[in-house]
Amino acid sequence: MNETRASSPKAEPFSATQAVAAGVDFAELQLGANGLFWNEYRPANAACRIWHWRDGVATCLTPAGFSVRSRVYEYGGGAFCLTPDGIVFVNEADQQLYRQTLGDEPQPLTSGECRYGDLHFAAHQVLAVEENHDQHRLVAIDLADGKRHLLAQGADFYAAPIISPDGQRLAWIEWSRPHQPWTSTRLMVAERSAKGAFSTPRCVAGDGIEESIQQPRFDAAGRLYCLSDRGGFWQPWAESSNGLNPLPAAAADHAPAPWQLGGCTWLPIGDGHLSTWSEGGFGRLDLCGKDFTGAYSRFRHLALDQQFIYCIAASPISPSAVIAIDRDSREVKVLVGGVAPLPAERISRPQTLCYPSGAGEAHGFFYPAMTDEVRPPLVVFIHGGPTSACYPILDPRIQYWTQRGFAVADLNYRGSSGYGREYRQALHLSWGEVDVEDACAVVAYLAERGMIDGDRAVIRGGSAGGYTVLCALAFEQVFRAGASLYGVSDPVALGKATHKFEGDYLDWLIGDPEQDAERYAARTPLLHASNIRVPVIFFQGELDAVVVPQQTRDMVAALEHNGIPVEAHYYADERHGFRRASNQAHALEQEWTFYRRVMGMVD
User: Angle CA(575)–CA(159)–CA(189) in degrees, nearest 5?
Assistant: First the structure.
């Protein structure tokens, strides 16, 4: 096994360092009386910092030594909220709440072992999901003195606490094991009593039927809304005297799978709504029936005032940016954004993929190689989750490969979100089969059309995507090599070691570990390592609490025992998903060097 850092390949016009540096991203855009705020991540320092935009000037509020990031449910989200005079945020290092008045230094609001996320401010209090080891609750924290008040407990998980404008109704999302937030949740409401406390909550939706509900909202009049997939897609529904009624909306998902807390992909506006949805994988933006999509292909974290629509947007040739769209002229102003790492003419553009696979069809995006080779080699990208998605936006990692003569197939295999509930549910008891089938089918589909060299295909994926990679290598003979980034090699061991949020996910994806032991054995790459006959490279964070490092070490040892060329790189300071620029660049360079060696590429 090679755990040393091999020398970097010959300098290329578009280096791994440049690709990583271009990975600036934004999240949690919020609009208030004091202006516009967002959370900004830059790979150079791996920190997340709050920025404030007002009167045409952007100011960083987060001082050195702080990073704004929640780790509730490990994936976090909702790491800050606006207050009348500033913000309250979750500090990454200690997971405690800090209050920060504009222009001043942060001051601690909480202390202890609890973690917080999905922050919302209402009536002099910060509403939050509180996590203490494996226990979760909804709490309210007084802004003045940090006093804690319990709002709800008893369910396994909570999300999206919100109070009506008049302060009389509290709504939230909750769900119980073994469900995930994208399979079955409940919309709950509690009324405030004359004494000021909230009454016993009642279930508004999700009781007795399996539906995924997310992003509850109150309008100015106190009417409750949400997104529900009971009609087949995550679409807007409104409260009425006889339950929930659907609002006019496109037959498409209006939100991604809620892996993170604090998402905002729609807002009720009078009788209509501001929303974004997916059409053929490409995002659309609509305000009460008027199209504001323009040149962008993905929209997140929406906000609105009388003059502008604000959001985080990206396109196939431009990286993530905070933009303002004039509601009258549709003119777009980029307030802040990352810099495209390549001129537009050198960027490989995504082409929609919809191809047959097994008894159904699968989706994704194809990026042509930016060379003259007629049948280039192919890199198949497998996203994590597995209930997640990829998007047709400028991804510097994809461009890194297309600039080096590889075509890329970025897959939304069956089970991905963005194509409706039925498509999303396709992995039920079928993980390790359906996803692998789709990954292999895309190679045949592209090769038959002369778009790639089917004999020079490699496959890469992180987390759940790493599991698909290892299954594809163990159970099929399609790929020349593979890369597993913090990937699952032993689902049974994962189920015993992973965190509560995903503790029952494997039961849904594969089955009960005891009752379906044969199925697990048949889909465990570690048990079938002897079937792998091609080189594999691994990348693993030593602090990973989702897919623990032992998963990678065991798989590496098994392949070494079988004499298969294997390379592994471990990063002492990384968790699940790499955040430090130097580590990201190193991993990309080593993967490139690895494929060159496997395929016998020469300069």
Answer: 170
pTM of the model: 0.92
Q: Which CATH number fits domain 342-599: 3.40.50.970, 1.10.8.640, 3.30.565.10, 3.40.50.1820?
A: 3.40.50.1820
Residue given tokens 């509730």 in the structure block: 72
- Locate the domains of the chain by residue range: 342-599
pLDDT over 70 at 12, yes or no: no
Q: Which own/partner pairs from 447-456 qualify as long-range (CB within 8 Å, at least 24 positions apart)? A: 447/375, 450/374, 450/375, 451/366, 451/368, 451/375, 451/407, 452/375, 452/376, 452/377, 452/378, 452/407, 453/375, 453/376, 453/377, 453/378, 454/378, 455/480, 456/376, 456/377, 456/378, 456/480, 456/599
Predicted pLDDT at 498: 76
- Looking at residue 2, what is its pLDDT? 38
DSSP code, position 348 = P
Residue 216, classified by CB atoms within 10 Å of its CB into exposed (0-12), middle (13-18) or buried (19+), is buried
Which long-range contacts does 317-322 make (Cβ < 8 Å, 24+ apart)? 317/344, 317/347, 317/349, 317/394, 318/394, 319/22, 319/23, 319/24, 319/393, 319/394, 319/396, 320/24, 320/25, 320/26, 320/393, 321/26, 322/26, 322/29, 322/36, 322/38, 322/53
Walk across the sheet containing 235-240 and list its strands: 213-218, 224-228, 235-240, 243-246
**Quick one: pLDDT at residue 181?**
96
> What would the mean pLDDT of 401-406 be, rounded to a whole number?
95
**4 pLDDT exceeds 80?**
no
User: 547 or 446, which is more confident?
Assistant: 446
Residue 481 · residue 598 · CB < 8 Å: yes
Range in 82-96, 363-377, 407-421, 565-579 the model is least confident about: 565-579
